[in-house]
Amino acid sequence: MFDESYFSKGLLIKSLADSWKVTVKVLRLSHSNKLWGTPDVKCAQISNLTGRATGSDSGRPTMLIANLFVAPPIVGPKSTERGMKHGRKSKHNFKVSASEFPAFLPSEVEKITDPFARKLASRIERLPVHLSLAKTCIMSSCVKPKAQLDTSPLVLLHGFDSSCLEWRYTLPLLEEAGLETWAVDVLGWGFSDLEKLPSCSVASKRDHLYQFWESYIKRPMTLVGPSLGAAVAIDFVIKYPEAVDKLILIDASVYAEGTGNLAKLPKLVAYAGVYLLKSLPLRLYATSLTFNSLAWTTCLDWANIGRLHCLLPWWEDATVDFMISGGYNVSADIKQVKQKTLIIWGEDDQIIDNKLAVRLHCELPNAIIRQIPDCGHIPHVEKPAAVSKLITEFVQAECKIATPTFILS
């Protein structure tokens, strides 16, 4: 997923150049029929084009490619399989025909084979939301809960350049646990109808979420923000504290200083970067970079899921508008958050340093922290059972603030 700090460090241009080289190499390999063999060999060949990213400074430009060009890597290979096998086949019918998908989704959704993605995609709806800043109405995409309950609703956001499909493994588990669960697409991403494009700045994203909440949720919620979605959540709760009962932040990207120098780039350069952002070769590369030993067919399916929302005709304009608007800068606001907060962090996150998890816990006045072993930047897709358990316990019980504990086996 995306971390804005890379932009503020001035690494965008180098990353775009490196990314273009990867694209050319992948296309050459494919054209020359050298990208063949066993499925794992294919993914290994793509990963070897530039080498795996490391935690060192020299590896950060490569990691930016993984951050920027996959949105997000959709599922962890082994841990997720273990989590999803647990008594689920008898409870869910995952056979979704093409006719059951909403007509507004790109036709490429029919090519997706992942049953959980197909099932959640079939549930995506568009609801009218009146934007007070833009003085217009858009049809906003979301997944509604199967039933509205008396308990505090759970509202799931997503990371940069992603969609509600990011939650396709964890959302069913949360519903099984008895939680009223919404998955809401952040303005500018996901599958909303933006033919009449409003501003997609931070202020507009905040206004959109508030208007959605006021129209449909209407009571204090537990707001969940992964990666850049954590910055979205903090920005929202500072402005509208009455709308949020509790806060959950997952591998939070909250210390970046917006999009940095990107806001000053000519639009032509910004559009070039966005064009690369949805490149299938780069999405394949980033997926194989993030996870080990993936079958070729799995890599391809995940890449297609991650870029599905990019195929809507207004996606480029919306993404460029956000990038040049300056992005999120919420580090100074963190200490003002009064709500009880659960911080979830993947122990092996290679995108955001674990030290920032400790810093975030220290700066939030009313927070607990839980770390998930053998898990990277996207716990809710790598370890859905563990994340669901933590969220459910936090929502359903009074949170006792104590010394940070790192749990879950």
TrEMBL record:
It comes from the Eukaryota. GO terms for molecular function: hydrolase activity. Residues 153-384 form the AB hydrolase-1 domain. It comes from Sesamum alatum. Transmembrane segments: none annotated. SUPFAM superfamilies: alpha/beta-Hydrolases (SSF53474). It holds the Pfam family Abhydrolase_1. This is AB hydrolase-1 domain-containing protein.
